[in-house]
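Good morning N.,

You mentioned wanting to compare the apo and holo forms, so I went ahead and generated the holo version with nicotinamide-adenine-dinucleotide. This is what I fed in:
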Amino acid sequence: MDLTQANIDTLRARAAPKGLNFINNAMILAEDGAEIPVISPIDGTQLSTLAASSAADMDRACAVARAAFESGVWSGMAPTDRKRVLLRWADLIEQHALEIAVLGARDNGTDIRMAFKGEPMSAAATIRFYAEAVDKRNGEITPTKKDVLSLIHKEPVGVVGAIIPWNFPLMIGAWKMAPALAAGNSVVLKPSEDAALSTMRVVELAAEAGLPAGVLNAVNGRGAVVGEALGLNMEVDVLAFTGSGNVGRRLLEYSARSNMKRVYLELGGKSPNLVFADAPNLEQAAKETAASIFRNNGQVCVAASRLAVERSIYDEFMQMVVDASRSFAVGDPLDLSHTTGALANAAQLSKVKTAVATAADEGAAPLCGGQQLLESSGGYYHEPTVLGDVRTGMDVVQNEVFGPVLAARAFDTEDEAIEIANETVYGLSSVLWSRDISRAHRLSARIKSGTVQVNCFSGADVTSPLGGVKQSGNGSDRSLHAMEKYENIKATWIQL
Ligand code: NAD
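and this is what came out, ligand included:
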């Protein structure tokens, strides 16, 4: 189905499915039948329900995943056959892409263009990337004396627990599920309460593609209940998480309190965007600066939420950013005339409003936006908001808003720009604009972040790793390196 308004309208008229649990290739209710209402951020009405599973439901899924792993039904399958199943899964996701994207947009408010490209299509591309890697990675032989054969094999770790957030659940879910499954593991997924419906459809398609029962399971429910149960489960060997720092800290505790499972964390960011007067194209830089924070309402982990502009061009550049910000059309995410949809939930809207009010109290200059939108719709909409003259100590500079709020100020020297870039506890991503290639290399080396983007925003794809330093996390999603998170290396030393 093509991305047309008529097709979108047909799909949105369908009743949304319930978000059940997927265990052993069957969609089932929580054992006690408990449910959580699913509220659509488009208009604040109830869209569906989600299984409110218990710790016992989660433990059952982990036991099933362990049994599937030990049986060798997937972990022992020939790599070329594993590849074939994963490729079929990617094809099925693509075939159902619009249906999945519309369901996802109704659940988390992402505008349909982005929901289509950034969710099912991106997930399919990621699954294909790791599928293709399955039969192309070799083991190693280490240099030893002639009477010894020393081998290094890559082995799957066993059971991978994956906990994902509500922004881009399919893209981020695929970043974890695909390399973990490609490496031969079983997976237990804990979707977000705010974006489970499209995730469950994608999980169901894996079974249709031929993934054996028990290899991929998904359990819904409240993070504090089923997320904790997954974190504490003794059958889980690796926990892969994307979400907030507070929950990330808890996962480290769960690991310490249980079997010391490896914990990979992709956490928040407060990414800097440094614009020098010699940027190759200031208009383009201004447009991408606005896109980098207002796309998907700023609910993007790598959103460049802190802007620092060389003083000689500050006023001119900020005017361009304000103009670009006003070009965003915020409203119903399923209307193709809108560029931007709703914030994911009521708490997120309230967080944005509080951040804007606090910034005003602390002396930030309002340059545009600042207001809730479309309140009478019942949905969660907010204007793209630009704040100028911010300072290091301000709340809006130090804390992730995860909303459409840009905090800007001027800088005078390269050293000052670097100080600004590194002024928070985060280190996920960064952007810098300059035509001076030496400066680009010099500064890239000094910025403490997992990714540096030069003269572009979000140019990266699945071939390139995404991970944070400092309190933005550890390990990386994407790229072939991500498979190593879900593998152990086994040394075999043979006396000949
Ligand atoms: P969140 O931390 O509130 O929730 C993430 C997941 O953790 C959800 O599935 C939730 O149910 C679960 N959870 C909640 N409490 C739990 C607990 N006690 N134990 C175990 N699991 C629990 O995050 P969110 O609000 O869904 O997502 C927004 C956050 O995610 C932001 O901080 C954003 O920066 C971050 N994020 C990071 C990246 C990245 O790649 N670094 C990408 C996207 C989002």
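The pocket of nicotinamide-adenine-dinucleotide is lined by residues 163-167, 172, 190, 192-193, 223-224, 227-228, 231, 242-244, 247, 250, 266-269, 301, 400, 402, 428, 466, 468, 473 (CB under 6 Å).

Happy to go through it together on a call whenever suits you.

Best,
F.
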